[in-house]
Design a protein that fits this description.
The chain has helices at 2-17, 26-39, 45-54, 56-65, 77-94, 109-120, 136-144, 157-163, 175-180, 211-224, and strands spanning 99-103, 128-133, 146-147, 164-167, 170-173, 181-185, 197-202, 225-233, 247-251, 254-257. The chain is α/β, with parallel strands linked by helices. Helix 3 (45-54) crosses helix 4 (56-65). The chain is globular and about 60 Å long. It binds S-adenosylmethionine (SAM).
C-alpha cells in the first residue's frame, strides 16, 4: 500500500514537473520526502500530492527540498588545484576560447570558482561559462552572488582579496565574475545538452541518482564533450570502466573524452 502510494506520487510529479524521482536512489529520496510530508501533517503521499496541486508555496518547497543544495567554493581544494595548475592551462592551450559547463551548480560557488581561475589565467573574457541547475531557487541565489563566510573557507587568500567585497555579513562576488557566467535552469535527466564543451564540471549530484540514470548521464556528458575535452566529477563519484563511455582517466576524478 505504502509503496503504491509513493509510486503514484512519483508518476504524478513526473507528469506535472518533468522531474523523474524514480531516477534518484529510492530509499534516500523517500526518507527525505516522507519527513517533508509529515512536517505538514499529511499521512499519505496522495494527500500530500493533492495539497501540492492547490498550494504553489508547498510545491516550491517540495522542489527546493527534494534535492540537496550544499556547495562551497573550491570544494575539495586539491582537485581544484589540479584543475588550476594542470588541466585549465592545458585546455587553454588547445582552445583560447573554451566552452565550459558547470552542471548542477547549486548556488553558484562552483561556476564562480571556475570564473576566478579563468580570470587569473587571463582568459575569463574569452571563455564561455554556462552554469545550470534543476532548482530555480538556487539559480536566483547564484545570480545574486552573495555568500556567508563558511562557504568561502577554502578560497585562497589572494582570490578572496581580488574577487569578493564584504557587505554587512555577506561576501559578494565581483561583477566581472557575475557577468561572465550564464546561469540557466536545466534538468540533467530531461533537457537537451549544449556542446561541444572543453570542460564539464558535474560534482556531488551523481551520488543521488540510480545506476541507470548515472549511465545515461555519463553517455550524454561524453557526447557533449569535444574529443579531448574533460569531465571533472565529485570526490566520491569515480566512474567504473570509463571506456564504456569513450572516456579515459587522466587523474582521479578527471576523465578525458577519447577521439
Ligand atoms: C549537492 S549540490 C552540488 C553543488 C555543486 N556541484 C558542488 O559540488 O558543490 C547538488 C545539486 O544538484 C541539483 N540537481 C539535482 N537533481 C538535478 C537534476 N536532475 N538536474 C540538474 N540538477 C540537479 C540540485 O538542485 C543541487 O543544487
Amino acid at each position: 500500500m505504502e509503496d503504491q502510494d509513493f509510486a503514484l506520487f512519483i508518476a504524478r510529479i513526473k507528469e506535472k514537473t518533468a522531474i523523474d524521482l524514480s531516477q534518484y536512489k529510492e530509499a534516500q529520496m523517500k526518507r527525505r520526502l516522507t519527513t517533508l510530508r509529515m512536517k505538514h501533517g499529511f499521512t499519505t503521499f496522495k494527500a500530500y500530492w493533492e495539497a501540492l496541486q492547490s498550494t504553489p508555496k508547498l510545491l516550491d518547497e517540495f522542489l527546493d527540498r527534494m534535492t540537496i543544495n550544499v556547495s562551497e567554493f573550491w570544494r575539495n581544494p586539491t582537485r581544484w588545484g589540479a584543475l588550476e595548475n594542470r588541466f585549465m592551462p592545458e585546455i587553454l592551450k588547445e582552445n583560447r576560447s573554451p566552452k565550459i559547463w558547470s552542471a548542477a551548480c547549486s548556488t553558484g560557488e562552483e561556476p564562480y570558482t571556475l570564473a576566478m581561475i579563468l580570470d587569473k589565467l587571463g582568459s575569463l573574457e574569452r571563455s564561455s561559462l554556462l552554469a545550470t541547475d534543476l532548482d530555480a531557487g538556487v539559480i536566483a541565489k547564484a545570480m545574486k552572488g552573495e555568500y556567508a563566510e563558511r562557504s568561502l573557507k577554502d578560497v585562497p587568500k589572494d582570490y578572496l582579496q581580488s574577487y569578493f567585497s564584504q557587505r554587512n555579513d555577506a561576501f559578494v562576488v565581483a561583477d566581472k565574475l557575475k557577468r561572465a557566467v550564464r546561469f540557466k535552469q536545466h534538468n540533467l535527466l530531461h533537457d537537451r545538452f549544449e556542446g561541444p564543451f572543453d570542460l564539464i564540471v558535474c560534482r556531488n549530484v551523481m551520488i543521488y541518482f540510480t545506476d541507470e540514470a548515472k549511465q545515461f548521464l555519463y553517455h550524454n556528458f561524453s557526447k557533449a564533450l569535444r574529443p579531448g575535452g574533460l569531465l571533472f566529477v565529485g570526490s566520491t563519484e569515480q566512474i567504473f570502466t570509463p571506456s564504456q563511455y569513450n572516456l579515459e582517466t587522466v587523474e582521479t576524478f578527471f576523465y578525458r573524452r577519447t577521439p
